[in-house]
Amino acid sequence: MLDFSQSPLLVIWEVTQACDLACVHCRASAMPGRSSDELSTEEGYRLLDQVKAFGEAKGFGSPLFVFTGGDPLKRPDLYELIRYSVKLGLRTNVTPSSTPLLTASAIDRFKECGVTRMAISVDGADAVTHDAFRQVPGSFDRCVMALKHAQKIGLDTQFQTTVTRRNMHQLDRIADLVGEVGSKMWSLFFLIVTGRALAGDDLDAAQYEEVFAKMYDISQRVSFDIKTTEAMHYRRYIIERQKAERRADEAPHADHGAAERVAFRTAGVSDGRGFVFVSHKGEVFPSGFLALSAGNVRRDSLVDVYRNSQLFQMLRDPHLREGKCGACEYVHVCGGSRSRAYALTGDYLAEDPRCVYQPKHYAPEPVHA
Ligand code: SF4
Question: Residue 281 pLDDT > 90, yes or no?
Fold first, then answer.
């Protein structure tokens, strides 16, 4: 078990913001061309050395390392960087975009370089829904080709879906597709209204519960794992749901399936706690959706910023949560999305505005006219 005050579970490096897609909800507001200010190959190597150092200090396991973008395939040195990461012994994932750069031979090279898992974003059960998100015809077919090719050559995949009002009613069909292409993990992202993300696509708090119920039900019938990003309150949903099921049926439940397998492996992980994001310019953010910089890997040690910066320490301290989240009995396993609190209220310590839960001992502040 990692001590999240010392080491993250996951380090994500946005190697570039360049991408040939123009997705309606893009976190990075990506552009086709690369920035001249991206970290260089040498700076990338140094960053990877720092990630390795997390694991070395006190015998902690090394974090999982993810190359993301933009589209990582826009960088010609991507394969060298992947090889270096693998040589250091880091479990290495890559999240390419579904563009013509994502060919069968590019996927073969990922496998040859030692990539642990390739993540592909699919935001609908069919081409009409997905391609409307991605704003590029043919993108859905390319995703399915990539996932099936990886399956054929024995490269593990992660299937990623951003949940919005556009696709929330397609989750059963999308889950069937995840099973069909043999992905090991279905990772559901919940919108943070930032970048190109559109406020009208965001779910309200009641819709979150609806989606959680659907995810939980799906988790009981599938063999792949399901995890959420920026919906930490799914963990609270699972606990409450299981309590209710135990009341209804006192017989012990041997296995609740994928729901808790992942939810509790990642219990307590949130922005800045178990998670760190390095931007294409080297800025160290608590998450890709919370663009507050605590340092820059060009001048600062990533390990030092993660462990000792005031921002990361405040984000990790459950006693500093405000509103409902501060009073909530689930603060240690959930704590709410700090990115969403910041995007919607301007205060990263505020309660998560998309949670319906009323903590048992919480009395909201009276509103004065
Ligand atoms: S009130 Fe906050 S800490 Fe409690 S379940 Fe909701 S989001 Fe999580």
Answer: yes
